[in-house]
Design a protein that fits this description.
295 residues, 9 helices
Length: 295
């Protein structure tokens, strides 16, 4: 069945303030374990709601990539009117779509890249929208333009009250997708192992990229690598996996994370996330289809 056109998906998304959370459910799992985790999935099987989430992801990708360029407005207007861009307008938009998703009609031969990147964006949007009661979001880096670029997949900083002052805490995330072949447990293990082997390098790169931030965020960046290396309570790690609904794991899915990151022993230092979507690869292709709809 063809996906609903962008205009219909946009109308549904707009009714929910272009947020993915209203269409998804969060279920806390293993909160008493060393690595508590959440299971996030669609609240219903409604095709238009699924399309709205795919559209929000596509729209967020283009808005982030295009920045202050006219490319975002050109892309969005053309997609909503189902009138593909031509000439210089199409030429301007294509460089913002091509990375990871390539261009229509064929796209890329690397079938795993699109689901992997869509999984990163779902993590980003869910983190940005996560309801917070005792702390606030201070820094959240959007996914890079490449799923093969060396570096951490996700990085977030929260500001929490500390007496009369405030303190910053951070988490470095490794984000994977699992759409068949092997096991989801193996994917979680691979992510945890990667954080253990290359976490020092990832946070060093993050501290360099954000070294000019002002105030307490800038101060955190000067200390970031050392905080990570000594497993300071202000730091932590997370593993997120996007997968098919049928692969949603059992309660003990993230127990192996502590094996690879045994130094992170303070409460709250480890977290897990599973985003379960029916036929996740097809959902990722739907996101790509909306990105292509202006071309």
């Amino acid at each position: 069945m063809p996906a609903p056109p962008p205009a219909e998906a946009d109308q549904t998304a707009a009714a929910h303030n272009y947020r993915v959370s209203p269409f998804l459910t969060r279920t806390a799992k293993a909160q008493d374990a060393a690595c508590p985790w959440q299971l996030i999935g669609f609240a219903s099987g409604d095709a238009l709601e699924r399309a709205a989430v795919a559209w929000v992801v596509a729209d967020a990708i283009m808005e982030s990539r295009a920045g202050h360029s006219r490319a975002y407005t050109l892309w969005r207007d053309a997609a909503l009117k189902t009138q593909p861009l031509l000439g210089d307008d199409a030429r301007l938009v294509k460089p913002f779509v091509r990375p990871v998703f390539e261009l229509p009609p064929k796209g890329s031969d690397a079938d795993d890249h699109v689901p992997g990147h869509v999984g990163e964006w779902l993590w980003y949007l869910l983190t940005r929208e996560e309801p917070l009661t005792d702390h606030e979001l201070a820094l959240l880096e959007p996914p890079s333009w490449s799923v093969t670029e060396g570096g951490g997949d996700g990085f977030v900083v929260h500001r929490i009250p500390a007496g009369t002052d405030t303190s910053l805490i951070f988490k470095l995330w490794e984000i994977k997708k699992f759409t068949g072949g092997g096991s989801l447990s193996g994917t979680i293990t691979k992510a945890a192992s990667q954080l253990a082997r290359r976490g020092d390098e990832y946070v060093a790169k993050i501290s360099w990229a954000n070294s000019t931030l002002p105030g307490d965020l800038g101060q955190l960046m000067t200390e970031l690598t050392e905080l990570w290396m000594r497993a300071d309570p202000r730091g932590g790690a997370g593993v997120s996996v996007s997968t098919n609904t049928a692969s949603a794991p059992k309660r003990s899915a993230f127990t192996q994370v502590t094996t690879y990151l045994p130094q992170l022993v303070h409460p709250g230092q480890l977290r897990g996330l599973v985003i379960a979507v029916e036929d996740f690869a097809a959902f990722a292709t739907q996101v790509r289809g909306y990105l292509w709809s202006a071309l």
